[in-house]
Specification:
The chain has helices at residues 3-12, 16-47, 59-70, 85-128, 132-137, 140-182, 186-231, 233-238, 242-267, 270-294, 300-341, 402-407, 432-437, 453-458, 465-474, 478-483, 501-515, 531-545, 557-562, 580-586, 589-595, and strands at residues 362-371, 377-387, 391-395, 417-422, 425-426, 439-443, 519-523, 549-553, 565-570, 573-578. It is elongated and about 120 Å long. 36% of the residues are buried. The protein has 599 residues and is α/β, with parallel strands linked by helices. The protein is 63% helix and 10% strand. The strands form 2 sheets. Strands 6-7-8-3-9-10 form a 6-stranded mixed sheet. It has 2 domains: 3-209 and 269-341, ABC transporter transmembrane region fold (Up-down Bundle); 362-595, Rossmann fold. The protein has 21 helices and 10 strands. Bound molecules: adenosine-5'-diphosphate (ADP) and magnesium ion.
Amino acid sequence: MSPLQRFIQKHLRPYLWGTLGGGLVLALGSSLQALSIGLLSLVFDRQLGLNNIASPVKPLKAFALRFAESLPLPHSEPGDFSLWLLPLALLTIFVLRAIFLYLGSLWVARSGLRAVRDIRERLFDRVLIQDPVFFQRHPVGELMNRVLGDVNAIQQLASNQTSDFIKQVATALSTLVAIFLVDWHMPLVVLLLFPLVYFPIRLISAKIRSRGRENQKSADRLLARLKEVLSNMRVVKVFAREQYESMRFKSQGEELYRINMKMVRSQLLAPPMMEIVGGLLLALLVIYGGVRIREGVLSGGDFIGLLLLIYALYDPIRHLTKMYAEVQVSQVALERIFNLYDLEPTIQGPTQPKPVPVTPILIEFDQVCFAYEQGQPVIEGVSLKIQKGEIVAFVGPSGGGKSTLVNLLPRLFDPLEGRVLIDGTDIKEFDPKELRSRIGVVTQETLLFMDTIHDNIAYGLNVSRAEVMEAARRAHAHDFIAQLPQGYETRLAETGSSLSGGQRQRIAIARALLQNPPVLILDEATSALDTESESIVQQALDELIKERTTLVIAHRLSTIQRANRIYVISRGRLIEQGTHESLLAAQGEYARLHSFSVL
Ligand SMILES: Nc1ncnc2c1ncn2[C@@H]1O[C@H](COP(=O)(O)OP(=O)(O)O)[C@@H](O)[C@H]1O
Ligand SMILES: [Mg+2]
């Protein structure tokens, strides 16, 4: 099934009636054109005296005549051609056509745009359920290009191209019928020319598609770069690297331009090919028409009518071939959309998940091994047990694997070997979402949204202002929030950059307090702060860890000393464990780190 077929069958189907109804109105409107040409033939014959033959009136003209006479327009008797009747009939046809085309296009576009809206929503949901690994592979800019860029590309397809397609096909078919009604030999000639159009177009469309793919990938890269530079603007400024970034952006843009040009070159091949076919068609007609007029079969009006009809036929064919080329680009967008659509997250819950204990008694790492890249182990055979209500600290040199180790608990990654257990159950047997809801995480980077402070603290929970304020108070955030001009309704700028690091951290802590998870992970939550904000954030953290099982990665000695147990992690291994005193007495790695004041 081609992506286009899938789009029509799966996504347009709910709106099929709208599409069909709109299509019908469009087809009606489009067919009126042929009728107007029939009328013109009449005008030529009668008004210019070109009807010099004895043969019967051609069906198209007869039909047009009946139509004109049936209109509620002023005329005295049947067959009367006042100077007014034909022009008025013509005008009526054009007005009707305009109304039909407008309403029909609108109807079709509405169905199409609804289908696109559904796709955009579902695509975003699809992205949301992916694992952290997925987001490492796909930079934000690329994902934006896929959720917005690709979807925009098919928006054209769904709104304009579909109705355009129906319009052109209906015009072509009705014109063909009209030609048949004037002279039945002519459509045969036209059909003979069909392979001349079809095969070359098929050939270039494959090319357009492959270039379209390159094109979108290049656009992904450009957007990824743009996103990266915009979010690291502070670094760009501080290092005064505007020119460097400008150059990098330009070279990426140059690449996109070149691929764009390649694609356009194939795309633009279709119309000139059609010009030649059109010329051929006209030339044939002129020869044929001359013969038929001489034979006395066609009147002058018929002949001019045929010429007009051929023109009218040529236009939609040219349009359709151009469109066929454009649709290839939409096909690429659809292809990319469906690729993302079909992607299942690698971390799956079981079909029948066990309920996660509301307050876990025992967290256990059992011979856990993990690697981001094959052959480069980051965690090697770590085993440890954490009881309910304990505070355990992880220390060790940077890059030793502490963050990686604790991230295995909320299943951001799955261990390659060994198991992580909660109350004796492998965490793979839980629903990952439920598991994560039991684990609160506060890290070094606090991630806030461009929302009010209230919404940032509540973050999707349906809680009252009083509860939010209570959490803020316990997180030592209430005082500074109250001093902001709009208090809890203050909107944060992007990623909360209008607040200081310590303030952001306290909002994150208030959020975690409100979530009230039984298990808490603090990954260097204070290490990015200056001493003053560190101490106040520390107080907030003290409030947060009350009555919870806490895994804390820390540099601060005071935090570490309070821990029930300290694990020293180095090069992915658990090399020492014990209390502050016992580890100092052991004179090992911990004592060494301590003597260097690293702790
Ligand atoms: N997302 C990642 N992809 C690949 N390698 C990573 C990733 N995160 C960390 N690493 C590597 O894994 C090792 C352990 O990192 P990490 O767990 O962050 O250490 P720590 O928290 O102790 O400083 C480091 O060598 C780091 O380069
Ligand atoms: Mg870390």
